[in-house]
Amino acid sequence: MITQGAPASKAVTYSRVMLKISGEALMGDQGFGLHPPTVQRIANEVKTVHDLGVEICMVIGGGNIFRGLQGSAQGMERTTADYMGMLATVMNALAMQAALESLGIFTRVISAIPMDQVCEPYIRRRAVRHLEKKRVCIFAAGTGNPYFTTDTAATLRANEMACQAIFKGTKVDGVYDMDPRKHSHAKRYETVTYDEVLQKHLGVMDASAIALARDNDLPIIVFSLDEPGGFCGILRGEGTYTRVHG
Ligand code: UDP
């Protein structure tokens, strides 16, 4: 169903969610790297949801620092480039951890690639326990495997952690039939199926992430991370977003 501008009205409640943001969301207007005030702003958004008692998993991309595909396009061996991309996600996770802890929220950075001096290795049962203790779990280093993306990592961990939905924070308030920043008549989907996303190449997440969500019936909520209070608002049943479902 396509709507234009109308708020999605259905109130939903979640007790455990996955928040996926791209690395680029952390770079502010500077075009590269980490912009600490932006990291802090997003941490504040996470706190408002944490204050509701919702258990929060996070996956942050690495595209603000390094992407494997960029490296391989410049002649670097792909798997090496991908490992560099995965390491970039660890830096972003640590930055988010610091920002959340400055707000008094307990967190754990949990890496798919063990690096014991820096963060915890991924052990599913231990991660679940952290969530039960209301610690925000930031899953770093993607899936730990090259040729994947952090969208797929977020979907994988969301399934493993039994999250009720993935919240994909973007620059726009949902999925549109064309780029709303380029086309003023673009229409926002209120809901859209996984298959439509794949068939129409709607660019919500990469195809393997969408397929993994579809196969496990995991809804994806696409919303604007630039909208102050947007993340919390959706958990309260307010605001505009697109729900990707089966
Ligand atoms: N990456 C990977 N395996 C994973 C997740 C990520 O190899 O499971 C690498 C890949 O090179 C990717 C980079 O890490 O380009 C950064 O992740 P991503 O592109 O998903 O970041 P985002 O676009 O969300 O900032």
TrEMBL record:
<feature type="domain" description="Aspartate/glutamate/uridylate kinase">
    <location>
        <begin position="16"/>
        <end position="224"/>
    </location>
</feature>
<dbReference type="Pfam" id="PF00696">
    <property type="entry name" value="AA_kinase"/>
</dbReference>
<feature type="binding site">
    <location>
        <position position="67"/>
    </location>
    <ligand>
        <name>ATP</name>
    </ligand>
</feature>
<comment type="function">
    <text>Catalyzes the reversible phosphorylation of UMP to UDP.</text>
</comment>
<comment type="subunit">
    <text>Homohexamer.</text>
</comment>
<keyword id="KW-0665">Pyrimidine biosynthesis</keyword>
<dbReference type="InterPro" id="IPR011817">
    <property type="entry name" value="Uridylate_kinase"/>
</dbReference>
<dbReference type="GO" id="GO:0033862">
    <property type="term" value="F:UMP kinase activity"/>
</dbReference>
<feature type="binding site">
    <location>
        <position position="82"/>
    </location>
    <ligand>
        <name>UMP</name>
    </ligand>
</feature>
<keyword id="KW-0021">Allosteric enzyme</keyword>
<dbReference type="GO" id="GO:0044210">
    <property type="term" value="P:'de novo' CTP biosynthetic process"/>
</dbReference>
<feature type="binding site">
    <location>
        <begin position="143"/>
        <end position="150"/>
    </location>
    <ligand>
        <name>UMP</name>
    </ligand>
</feature>
<feature type="binding site">
    <location>
        <position position="179"/>
    </location>
    <ligand>
        <name>ATP</name>
    </ligand>
</feature>
<comment type="pathway">
    <text>Pyrimidine metabolism; CTP biosynthesis via de novo pathway; UDP from UMP (UMPK route): step 1/1.</text>
</comment>
<keyword id="KW-0067">ATP-binding</keyword>
<keyword id="KW-0963">Cytoplasm</keyword>
<dbReference type="InterPro" id="IPR015963">
    <property type="entry name" value="Uridylate_kinase_bac"/>
</dbReference>
<feature type="region of interest" description="Involved in allosteric activation by GTP">
    <location>
        <begin position="28"/>
        <end position="33"/>
    </location>
</feature>
<dbReference type="InterPro" id="IPR001048">
    <property type="entry name" value="Asp/Glu/Uridylate_kinase"/>
</dbReference>
<comment type="similarity">
    <text>Belongs to the UMP kinase family.</text>
</comment>
<keyword id="KW-0418">Kinase</keyword>
<feature type="binding site">
    <location>
        <position position="176"/>
    </location>
    <ligand>
        <name>ATP</name>
    </ligand>
</feature>
<dbReference type="GO" id="GO:0005737">
    <property type="term" value="C:cytoplasm"/>
</dbReference>
<feature type="binding site">
    <location>
        <position position="62"/>
    </location>
    <ligand>
        <name>UMP</name>
    </ligand>
</feature>
<dbReference type="InterPro" id="IPR036393">
    <property type="entry name" value="AceGlu_kinase-like_sf"/>
</dbReference>
<feature type="binding site">
    <location>
        <begin position="20"/>
        <end position="23"/>
    </location>
    <ligand>
        <name>ATP</name>
    </ligand>
</feature>
<feature type="binding site">
    <location>
        <position position="170"/>
    </location>
    <ligand>
        <name>ATP</name>
    </ligand>
</feature>
<dbReference type="GO" id="GO:0005524">
    <property type="term" value="F:ATP binding"/>
</dbReference>
<feature type="binding site">
    <location>
        <position position="63"/>
    </location>
    <ligand>
        <name>ATP</name>
    </ligand>
</feature>
<protein>
    <recommendedName>
        <fullName>Uridylate kinase</fullName>
        <ecNumber>2.7.4.22</ecNumber>
    </recommendedName>
</protein>
<keyword id="KW-0808">Transferase</keyword>
<dbReference type="GO" id="GO:0006225">
    <property type="term" value="P:UDP biosynthetic process"/>
</dbReference>
<keyword id="KW-0547">Nucleotide-binding</keyword>
